[in-house]
Specification:
Blueprint (H helix, E strand, L loop, with lengths): L1 H23 L3 H9 L5 H18 L4 H23 L9 H19 L1 H11 L1
Helix pairs in contact: 1-3, 1-5, 3-4, 4-5
Length: about 130
């Protein structure tokens, strides 16, 4: 079980970290995606920064809940953008970006589910 919990944090972190190169170097795929939704260049850069934060938070066990929440929000945005604006396949990638976003969402959701008691305590504390 510990291995699954660790993988549910590490895999999304790796996926988000490896996409940073493309976002920050203005790779043609990233520019195309963010131009298509009218957010180039600031949306691309801001998304990259947020994914960096989410990845780092996921890697630190005590902060993983916050990385999972941020990752879920980012991936819901990515998936909806694919479904309603870009399509599953972008620039002949065979749907790779869509499926990586889906895998990241699943890993983050699992991480959040595993830490649901800590989330409940936090919510009850602020209410």
């Amino acid at each position: 079980m510990k291995t699954l919990n660790l993988l549910a944090r590490i895999i999304p972190a790796i996926i988000m970290l490896q996409t940073l190169f493309f976002k920050f170097s203005a790779a043609p795929e990233s520019v195309y995606i963010f131009s298509s939704v009218g957010l180039e260049p600031w949306g691309r850069i801001a998304t990259g920064v947020l994914e960096l934060f989410a990845s780092l938070l996921l890697l630190f066990n005590r902060q993983a809940i916050w990385g999972a929440i941020l990752g879920i929000g980012l991936m819901i945005g990515a998936i909806f953008t694919h479904l309603f604006i870009l399509g599953i396949e972008v620039m002949d990638d065979g749907g790779q970006l869509f499926f990586m976003a889906l895998a990241t969402l699943i890993g983050c959701a699992y991480t959040l589910y595993q830490r649901r008691d800590a989330l409940k305590v936090f919510i009850y504390t602020i209410l």
